[in-house]
Amino acid sequence: MDPHTYNVDLTWLSQRKGEISSPELDQIIEVATPPEFPKGMPGIWSPEHLFTAAVSSCFMTTFLAIAENSNLEFKSLSCPAEGILDKKDGKFAMTEVVLKPVVTIVNEADREKAEKIMIKAERACLISNSITSEIKLETEVLVEERQPA
Fold first, then answer.
1. In the prediction, which pLDDT does 137 show?
2. Can you give the pTM of this predicted structure?
3. What is the topology classification, in CATH, of domain 46-149?
4. Beta-sheet pairing, 140-143 with 102-105
5. 34: which of 18, 46, 65, 137 fits an S-S bond (Cβ 3.0–4.6 Å)?
6. Rounded CA gap, 74 and 106, in Å?
């Protein structure tokens, strides 16, 4: 595969707030220093939130591709994620991301397959493979039996 380029523009607005956009996308996202830091702003996406979201959304897209290729029939996927900001070697860093995916399947027989696909998705996620933070996976598989027609 050839290299791909993803363009992002940042514009500072005021104080500790800016906005990010991309010539390839329609949405603009407001970003700010998180409230835990001096002059931080609550209620606005922070770089730390975006970092955590990048790991979680990459897990999702990788899971979807592997599930499709594995013919896994599932009803839903959610993936709460927790990004941990801490000091590492005297510097602030996102030291850990905990992914807590929940997959709902329709057949109990697919439980092991679903679990394996979640593990494989985390290992194959290009964002997870691009960062030094530890990625922890706490999976859950639910079964929702089909209702008789």
1. 94
2. 0.90
3. GMP Synthetase; Chain A, domain 3 (3.30.300)
4. parallel
5. 46
6. 6
